[in-house]
Fold:
Amino acid sequence: MMRINNYSLLTDFYELTMTAGYFEHKLNTQAVFDLFIRRSPKNRSYFVACGLEDCLEYLKELHFDLESLDYLKNLKIFKDDFLNFLGNLKFRGSIFALPEGTIFFPNEPVIKVVAPIIEAQIIESFLLNSINLQTTIATKASRVVYAAKGKGVFDFSLRRTQGVSAAIKVARASYIAGCLGTSNCLAGKIYQIPVAGTMAHSYVMSFKEELKAFQSFTKTFPNNSTLLIDTYDNLKGLRNAITVAKELEAKGHRLLAVRLDSGDLASISQKVRVQLNKAGLSYVKIFASGNLDEYKIERLLKRKARIDNFGVGTNMGTSSDAPYCDVIYKISEVSDENGNFIPTMKLSKDKLTFPGRKQIFRIMDKKGQFEKDILALENESIEGTPLLIKVVENGKFIYKSPSLNEIRKVTKENLDCLPKKFKRINNAQKYPVLISPGLKALRDDFLNSLKQRMKNAP
Structure:
């Protein structure tokens, strides 16, 4: 497996060609960029901010080593003086960001970059990549956890995620969003996430008799066994599981759970629960898996499924119904030849952006629930709590990333404060994000001045 020790080249080629142009023509130019999500995917009204920790680690380590510079030199496109400049590059700008676990909404900046334009441009691709994946998955996982209504959810997505790195970040993002653990042992080691698993059909099928398979497994794990009972027939498998559970009881142990992986999970789980209870095994949990997501889990629970825990894989680990966010990175201010910052904005149809340096202010109602957000200029006096915090100041990293469990707690607190109508799995209401008078005025002034310039242009 190839090991990557330097991520300076994890950027789009045009970032470097633009940077070379800046080097020759705008070397001292400063800029402000906003990273935000333009619109919500279907059935989404909110996002869970995730990925900041990786962005900060990348910025701390940002440099072009000799191997990277040799690669660029061999492309025979870039001039030596530019490559020498890259050889001394470090991030010297400032970063404002939403702490991980913060709930946010379309058009609200997740990250605001204030930096020399060369630095701000080079970091774009990495920031977008990190925030896109991890925010997408944390948001999806939060929906799965919400649909489960207090039942346990575990990340079982390792084998279906898009690559090794994604699998590790998915486990982290899912845990932040409320999952109880992951099947991914490496993620468990790296992030100290609880690991969980049961058994595969192959284990049962490797024995001549299902009962023998169950007995051998519980002999190895007498206090931590979950038996997969649907390899041949759920109810016959259940009878074998009950036999083994009674054998364990006689030896002072307890069967942890049985697992269902196919069929009509609602109906089967009800029958399994009845039989377990009749056998005096009310403590044995029912674990379900098999192409689950928030939609299926919601339907199962509406049908009174007797399921205690869910193993959710592909659909959560790839966010199958919304596999990416419409995350973008746009310039909102740029300095002129005198060093003065001038607001700027994009005017493309359906892609209009807001100029200036912005802040998000959150308004709470009397019950402590989110009521509305106001997107404003950072220097406006607005009622509410400002959400963007400074994490890097002129190249100095002033923010200590919280522990994973602290981020998980923040996520839960944010989700608890978001009214149910915005969390519905289907037909969620759109959360109100208002534009402040100051930001509206700046946008209108800029549009009017631009129209005048275009009118007077030759």
In short: The mean pLDDT is 95. The domain at 13-137+325-456 is CATH 3.20.140.10 (nicotinate phosphoribosyltransferase). The longest strand covers residues 327-335. The radius of gyration is 26 Å.
